[in-house]
Amino acid sequence: MNEYKIIPLPKSEWKGTPIMMRYTTEEYFDLEKTESTDSFSVKMVKKKFDTPIDGDGAVGFG
After folding, report:
1. What is the mean pLDDT of residues 25-52?
2. Which stretches of the chain are assigned E, i.e. beta strand?
3. Which of 13, 24, 27, 34 has an alpha carbon within 20 to 30 A of 52's alpha carbon?
């Protein structure tokens, strides 16, 4: 895995600036719900994709 140095960015200069990010993931969380007459519960279960998923998008800073 690549190692990157994380540095703080001054909020006054970067606030509102979109930052493009790319990622690959092999897993996701699925919800499993159970119900009874007086309650319900939701469990998040980690599952694997059949093939890795690539994604990208902009993240706003600040």
Report:
1. 96
2. 18-35, 40-60
3. 34
